Amino acid sequence: QTYAPKLILLDISDISCIRDVAREILNCYGCVDILINNASMKVKGAVQSISLELDKKIMDANYFGPITLTKAILPNMISRRTGQIVLINSIQGKIGIPFRAAYAASKHAAVGFFDCLRAEMEEFDISVSTVNPTFICSYHRPPAPGNWEASIWK
C-alpha cells in the first residue's frame, strides 16, 4: 500500500512533545516499520566553558530524544513482532576527543542504550542497528558573542 507523505515537525530535544508526535504518526499510519533516529546536536568547547544547561540540551537531543521516540514506537513493533530501529550515531560514541565532551557523552549513552535494546528485542524479531560514522561536514552558524545556542552544530 502507498501512503501520501505527511510532514510532522519535531524538535527532538523537546522531550515533552515526542510522545504526542509518535501517537500522531501511529494514528495516521497504524504502524512504523522502520524508525531511523538521525537527529543530532553538537557543540565544540572546553569542558569548563560549556554550561550545564547546554550539556543537558545536548543530552536531551542526542540521548533522551531518540530513546523517548523509540520507546513511544516500540510497543507497536512488539505487538506486531516486527520492525527495525536504526540509530545514526557517531564514532564519538566509541571514542572521545578534546572539546567535544558533552557530545561524546551523549553519543556514548545512546550506544549503551541501543546495544541493550538490541539484545532485548531479539525475541520479538525486531532489528536494532547502530551506525557510527566518522566525522562528517555539518551545517554550522558562526556564533554571535554571548549566544551559546548559535555555537550548536545541527
TrEMBL record:
InterPro entries: NAD(P)-bd_dom_sf, Sc_DH/Rdtase_CS, SDR_fam, SDR_family_member_7C
Keyword set includes Amino-acid biosynthesis: no
GO terms (BP aspect): intracellular calcium ion homeostasis
Pfam families linked to this entry: adh_short (PF00106)
Domain of life from the UniProt record: Eukaryota
Annotated keywords: NAD, NADP, Oxidoreductase, Signal
GO molecular function: oxidoreductase activity, acting on the CH-OH group of donors, NAD or NADP as acceptor
Presence of the UniProt keyword tRNA processing in the record: no
Family: Belongs to the short-chain dehydrogenases/reductases (SDR) family.
Protein name: Dehydrogenase/reductase SDR family member 7C
Originating organism: Pomatostomus ruficeps
Species lineage: Eukaryota, Metazoa, Chordata, Craniata, Vertebrata
Primary gene name: Dhrs7c
